[in-house]
């Protein structure tokens, strides 16, 4: 495949994540476009809950493993998989299966510790001011890939690749729920990912973001990848039967310069895999 | 090999094994973390835990059958456990040696002489067993307060190991325990008392030692003298760990089988054999009938005295949230030995040693404190019941906890019920959006649901000056940019509500007008709130909501024990 320059997104249909993610990244020009030999890559899954993979509340472990492998294949020196979950961190990585999947693919799993957080003030930010941010994993890294499951979220409407960055905040971060749209917008100013992947293979339609029952999930067999997280999420919300205007943080992220909600203008590449 | 060398090797071995088994009770995947080690061994070999629960429940949890081995070996060999196995005893012996080895011989002999106060431990044992055996008032098992194995397990689990955890060793996460400093102080005091009198705890206090002392009167092999007279050099009494007077008429019940006398005796007068000592022996513990009757009565009275607080009745303490699978309170108190194993293994650190605010009997029993730890009681976890050595917390399965499969009809195990404190809740009391509790509720469908409402904010009724395209200019001054969060709406004409997308000090921009407000008319700024409610039929009392509530002082949503599955009389629902 010729390299598709720019910020386009790829949307791949299929039920097997290992196949769809390979296809999606291939359509964007291959992992080599994002990861150069010698790179140190941080992968940020959503590992928020101590919930088994079948319930879809966390990033699918096979998907994490596949992306780790792709990074190494592209020449990455080291891949770190990390998150600052809501539930007990060790339990989250163990029960979600992400810990084992990442390690067996050769990645290092980094659990949050106090010394990995640094009080940070975001330039131009109103909310992230002298706030502990999970910066430790990034000290030696130069690439960041976000992998998020597509989930219903009562407060913000939808939890996708942008909401996933919430997991990089430390402290009593739940106070930011008072202004959920602006905190997500500020996170898009703070976090500049190399690539984001949104997993809509099984979408959590109800009872999000924890789910808890397979009946909360609906098979949509769609995986989206791209460097424009706003575009990826703007497409993604359609899978939750939501409109872009239902999610005020999308417009706010456009205002921060993180991307565009007009994903059609990017001429997304559609394909099927598996 | 000299016998005291063998004894020392044995002590080091069992002490190390004890420490190792504590370390490997840590949740995690490293080689020094949970790996199917028999982490309850010391508690299971402890006959006081077995006898105590037999007295309180008239049954024996099969895991405690191992204690029979200890009993049989004691009847054969005497107090081998105290001198060769007990990790607490080994610690005392070591510290006592350090503190006293430089003292002159005469002082050592004085320190190791028998004291009448050594009878106190029998009274301690009697008080505990009487409290456990008493049928009239309902039994209580309090042996764990002073039984050295639970005491040391608790001290290691909740203090020493936690200190290492928090320094970045052993556990992946920091561990915190409410009131652990008291446990630590008791442990330290018991240890430092050896500097004044060797094996202070063993000689004067230890109820397990007292139990072994009583059993050792039947011992087949015992220490004794080969002839009545010896040179009376008293070398043996300089190093006697039990304070049992081996040079004179030996007190069999006090002998901890340290074999120091055997080793030190220059005359080769002392041996370990089946014959009674040539110098005579005192087999029975030195305990007066009056003292025995008094301690029996004391133990018997302690139970009704403690229960005057009526903590098992109407005055039950609602903040005592027990781990999933815990027996009904009365039966639980008949089994819990306060060892702290559940508190060590709990992956979220939510199980805490209880205090006395819930009654004396609650001390150091497992209580959930959702403020400590990493996230309430984890849904997919039953570790506490699997580790509990006495089944005070039953070894339930995940299916039973979650009310699945064959337990579907019974429903999930409820630990209590969450209550929203509307006075403290951000959306209820301060018109601030939040619903972190709802987001984190792990139950499906969620036990926390919300109802949407639109509240007009303070000073939120404004006068329209002029309307252009999508912007309303207003007569009043409002804070710039404050209402563009996506949560504020503009209510026009008392009915139409539009999301505010931008605002300056004197204007409000909305997406689109259906109806243009006339100049001079009124508009309202409203905040959209989702206010949390608890579905009492769905709530399992896991406390994750309480843990996550951003009102970080007294949480705006808190679990209280009403509705817990184990107590039918604390229910809130009719069915």
Mean of residue pLDDT values of chain A: 95
For the biggest sheet of chain B, the summary is: 6 strands, antiparallel, barrel
> Mean pLDDT of chain B, nearest integer?
94
What Rg of chain A is obtained from the alpha carbons, in whole angstroms? 17 Å
- DSSP summary: helix tally of chain B: 22
Would you list the SSEs of chain A in sequence order as H and E?
EHEHEHHEEEEEHEEHHE
Layout: helices, strands, pairs:
The complex is a heterodimer of chains A (274) and B (575).
Chain A: E1 9-13, H1 17-27, E2 40-45, H2 61-73, E3 78-82, H3 89-95, H4 98-104, E4 108-110, E5 117-120, E6 131-134, E7 143-153, E8 157-159, H5 180-190, E9 195-204, E10 217-226, H6 229-239, H7 248-255, E11 269-272
Parallel strand pairs in A: 1-11, 2-3, 2-7, 3-4, 7-9
Antiparallel strand pairs in A: 1-10, 5-6, 7-8, 9-10
Helix pairs in contact in A: 1-2, 2-4, 5-7
Chain B: H1 3-23, H2 41-44, H3 47-57, H4 67-77, H5 80-85, H6 87-100, H7 105-111, H8 120-133, H9 148-166, H10 180-192, H11 200-205, H12 207-215, E1 222-225, H13 235-238, E2 250-251, H14 260-264, E3 270-273, E4 281-282, H15 289-306, H16 329-333, H17 341-345, E5 351-353, E6 366-368, H18 383-387, H19 398-402, E7 417-420, H20 426-429, H21 436-440, E8 448-468, E9 471-474, E10 488-492, E11 496-504, E12 507-510, E13 522-534, H22 544-548, E14 557-560
Parallel strand pairs in B: 2-4
Antiparallel strand pairs in B: 1-3, 5-6, 7-14, 8-9, 8-13, 9-12, 10-11, 10-13, 11-12
Helix pairs in contact in B: 1-6, 1-9, 3-4, 3-8, 8-12, 8-15, 9-10
